[in-house]
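Q: Hi! New to this. If I give you a protein sequence and the SMILES for nicotinamide-adenine-dinucleotide, can you show me the bound structure?
A: Yes, paste them in.
Q: Okay, here:
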Amino acid sequence: MGTVNTSFVAPRQMLIGGGAVRRIAEVLGTFGVSRPLVVSDPVMVGTGLIARVLEPLASAGIQPAVFSDTVSDPTDTVIEAGVGEFARGEFDCLVGFGGGSPIDTAKAIAILAAGGGKMRDYKVPVQADRGAVPVIAIPTTAGTGSECTRFTVITDTEHGEKMLIAGLGALPLAAIVDYELTFTVPPRTTADTGVDSLTHALEAYISKRANPFSDALALSAMSLIGRHIRTAYHEPRNAVAREAMMLGATQAGLAFSNASVALVHGMSRPIGAHFHVPHGLSNAMLLPAVTRFSVGAAESRYADAARRIGFAELADSDAVAAAKLVAGLEGLNRELAVPSPAAYGIDDAVWHGKLELMAEQALASGSPANNPRVPAKEEILALYREAWTGVPPNAPR
Ligand SMILES: NC(=O)c1ccc[n+]([C@@H]2O[C@H](COP(=O)([O-])OP(=O)(O)OC[C@H]3O[C@@H](n4cnc5c(N)ncnc54)[C@H](O)[C@@H]3O)[C@@H](O)[C@H]2O)c1
Ligand SMILES: [Fe+2]
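A: Thanks. Here is the predicted structure of the protein with nicotinamide-adenine-dinucleotide bound:
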């Protein structure tokens, strides 16, 4: 047996707190870069939120070009367009400004511009360790944690697959984590992105690749998100809740970047690819069923999670706390008005017709192998069928 080493990667600098985005020029200066291409999306431009990054740059004499054609669940074709834009200027860094989609787009542009070829050439298990220029990430959702992860998720338009791309090329050099950018996130997106963060923390904690560093961050993230997600959803301008959610999202990002996600994410990506369900929402649709399937294989870990999130009491036994986790996640979905795939309006025949392919894509992503209970393909199919209406097989109907 060789020694088991822990590797932990993170951005070189993270500037965290309300108003931190005003210091963007200082961050560029620290790293000796001055010609950014800002990567964002039409909503950031249309609502004017992008001024929050452009104005402090302008005050420092920097007038960056903006690539704002990012789409939700970014595609390989958009990344190619972004690389074209990048090649037209003398840019020395990329600034990803927005939710996970613009940040992932900026990362993927850096990777594709460095190595050429097609985006699918970089999907796991390939190590995408090189980027053409550094990425500075500024999240406006709380969220994917993409600002501090070594991942980018890009859709292969030809094969209808959401690809996981992993490596140091996808790890931002710096992140600016400013919760004041999230006040305008609408409740639906607040819920979806918040459940995404919660899933990152939970999956990092129960992952077979969890380690003491990721554990500390995952546990902290679960208590922050568990205590504040409902308030952020019901009261968008509640600064205490927004700040806690942003800290939780970033901690969860660091945790899963170094411990990996597991079965929920493995099964969630194909739903996003085939049915364009927002990423956090497809996680939420799966979370109770997948947790029910998995708890028995790591009861004390799931019990810790339940206590941290606030679903169970400290005095509860592991078995009781683990059961409360499943019930608590179901209750959270009800409070956040998470629909089942059926209620979301997905066609019954199309859903069931794609399940074989979705199960294969889930397994191929590698994420299910990190789950405490590793599913066979048949079990993944059964979980997709169970998630369809959100009703567990033995429940009274
Ligand atoms: N790289 C990673 O480690 C990682 C992790 C998890 C998810 N992802 C990926 O990230 C993507 C999802 O990112 P997301 O959930 O942040 O969604 P998103 O970036 O697609 O944004 C969702 C919507 O919210 C809007 N929005 C964002 N910030 C806003 C604000 N402050 N005010 C008002 N509207 C705002 C956007 O314009 C968009 O319409 C998916 O493609 C997912 O697969 C990546
Ligand atoms: Fe996620």
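A: The mean pLDDT is 96. Let me know if you'd like me to explain how to read the tokens.
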